[in-house]
């Protein structure tokens, strides 16, 4: 399966992509723990089947110091002992916010209460936007068939310029 289009090679695609990146940068710079951000982005990318995003987020998380055990177990976080209660709440929100068609109520009140227990309002705002943005990024990657395997950590560091 070959990629259909390089959105960043298109003038309009690059213009939109830079703005998309800047929203993501604001989330990244929030007080939501970076490890939590990485776990959420990886889990949502796994659910959505975006090979490029799984490659990207697993390598970025590893480069930031995430352990191989936690990266391997994020797909089975409910059956794992390596995640904190706060991370579990964030992963539950990420899954429920991603699987909207599978859960007619969307994010459950129970999950929302768990998130409220562990995060302040700014962190929750960052988490909600993070789930929305990674879902959008996954859809972009799947639509244009971006392939996983070639990402190198930090290769988009110059996009904010």
TrEMBL record:
This is Carboxymuconolactone decarboxylase family protein. Residues 26-96 form the Carboxymuconolactone decarboxylase-like domain. InterPro entries: AhpD-like (IPR029032), AhpD_core (IPR004675), CMD-like (IPR003779). Gene3D superfamilies: AhpD-like. It comes from Actinoallomurus acaciae. Signal peptide: none annotated. It comes from the Bacteria.
């Amino acid at each position: 399966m070959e990629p259909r289009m390089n959105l960043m090679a298109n003038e309009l695609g690059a213009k939109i992509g830079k703005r998309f990146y800047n929203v993501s940068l604001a989330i990244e710079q929030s007080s939501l723990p970076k490890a939590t951000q990485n776990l959420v982005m990886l889990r949502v990318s796994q659910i959505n089947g975006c090979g490029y995003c799984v490659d990207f987020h697993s390598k970025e998380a590893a480069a930031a110091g995430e352990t191989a055990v936690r990266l391997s177990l994020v797909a089975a976080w409910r059956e794992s002992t390596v995640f904190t209660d706060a991370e579990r709440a964030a992963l539950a929100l990420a899954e429920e916010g991603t699987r909207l068609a599978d859960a007619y109520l969307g994010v459950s009140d129970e999950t929302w209460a768990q998130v409220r227990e562990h995060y302040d309002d700014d962190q929750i705002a960052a988490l909600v936007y993070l789930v929305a943005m990674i879902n959008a990024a996954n859809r972009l990657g799947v639509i244009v068939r971006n392939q996983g395997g070639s990402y190198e950590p930090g290769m988009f560091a110059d996009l904010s310029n």
